Amino acid sequence: MTSPLDTVFAALADPTRRAILSMLLEDDMAVTDVAEPFEMSLAAISKHLGVLTKAGLIVQEKRGRVKWCKLDPDALRAASIWMQSFGQFEAVNLDAFERFLETETISQSTN
User: Fold this and answer.
1) What value does the mean pLDDT take over residues 21-49?
2) I need a surface site. Which of 19, 39, 80, 100 has the fewest CB within 10 A?
3) DSSP state of 1
4) Where are the domains of the chain?
5) Neighbouring-strand partners of residue 58
């Protein structure tokens, strides 16, 4: 059995699905409008939307003849709470880490 949190993170693992979520932050969109910026078939976009719907990240509803997608505002709550538990760790300073790696690379190449 897959936990709801696993399903959310699996859905978020795909860059296309993350892009779709970003688009839906702005407003509800018709499925055809969601598909427009992507170079893939409507069927492929529909599969991505199905994964997002199953994960509870979006809701799809029919309005007249058009299927609309909207972001579920509470969708990421459980994932956010889980990730906050890691907030106790200090953020990595990537610039300092890069300097460290350069220093180590230089010292190893001179030995």
Assistant:
1) 96
2) 39
3) -
4) 4-109
5) 71
